Amino acid sequence: APAYNPGTGYRDMSADLVKLELVESEGKPGRLTLTLDNSTGQYSAGGALKVQAEVLLSQGYVGVGLVPTHRCYVVGWSFLRAADRAEVQVTCLERSERLLYESARPVSYANCTLLFIASDLLARAGLDCVITQDGSLQMSQAIPAFQLLPGEPYARALTRLLGAFTVAWHTRVSAGLGAL
Asked: Which residues contact 9 (CB under 8 A, 6 or more apart)?
């Protein structure tokens, strides 16, 4: 995703927000559910909502400033209509959800560094990533052989790869920067 630029047609949905529900739990991608006022029909028009559209949630206090906290992607929406209300409920998942995708085919690595294999697994999962290390030499260690198995989730492969070392991994949002 490109860096955030307010001049390129992004839509600020703050004024339309009726309800926000953010659910986070260990080992699972966060789920963001937005209920938006659709009384003017702005979200009913074709193209107003798109699957995989990026939603940047910023939190903070009015007058103090907002901080981008979650970068999610639209996975679906439904329209809620009653005599006294017209709303659209938008469901989004954090990008780390892509780590749960399964590999379609086997991939073999031979004599590659731990850093290279980890970066490649993240890229195959569809994540643009930045891997930071604490200066430890183990990330530059050559791994004689490693294989991503067909049907194996990328998160499991990363855990299997890094589990043999004293390396911990986690995902973190760098909202608006195009990185995870």
From this structure: none
